[in-house]
Amino acid sequence: MAEIADLCVVISAPNMGDDIQAMKAGVLEIADVLVVNKADLPLARRTTEQLKNMLKLRREKLDVPVIETVATKETGIESLHEAIVGLQRTATGDKQKTRERRMRRLIAQSAGRMVHDRIRDAAGGELEGLVQAAATGEIGIVDAARRALKTVL
């Protein structure tokens, strides 16, 4: 889970068709550093430029470094290391507080999914009555949600 990591490095290779898929999957949203490995291959420069252009579409963290490497020749590894160390040094705020905020968000998301699944999968009983009452307008969604929480928790 990328959300748990303090820093996320996303590595791609040129001419793999991964750039558009990565964007669709949200990979570019989580990246703190982007790496184009196999930079000695044809179309590597194009992949690097595509990634830089896609970063312009991000809402946050627009200054993500895009680094070209050739791992088998150890080319660009020093630049990658410097970028990672630099980001770690300039991390804003207290790491522990940042981790705690991240964990609070992840716990809330997980709890929300669990409650969602319980309500969705429940058949009959009080929940069914709440669904019907909300569907007919007898009670509002917020009231139905409060009652549903009491039922499933």
What do you see in this structure?
- This protein is mostly helical.
- The chain has 2 domains: 2-89, Rossmann fold, CATH 3.40.50.300; 95-152.
- The protein is 58% helix and 7% strand.
- It is built from 7 helices and 3 strands; from the N terminus they run βααβαβαααα.
- It has a 3-stranded parallel beta sheet with strand order 1-2-3, sandwiched between helices.
- α6 packs antiparallel against α7 (141-152).
Descriptors:
153 residues; mainly alpha; Rossmann fold; 3-stranded parallel β-sheet; 7 helices
Topology readout:
Blueprint: E1 9-12, H1 18-25, H2 27-30, E2 33-36, H3 44-55, E3 66-68, H4 77-89, H5 95-121, H6 125-136, H7 141-152
Parallel strand pairs: 1-2, 2-3
Helix pairs in contact: 6-7
Brief rundown of the structure:
The chain has about 150 residues and is mainly α. The chain has helices at about 20-25, 25-30, 45-55, 75-90, 95-120, 125-135, 140-150; strands at about 10, 35, 65-70.
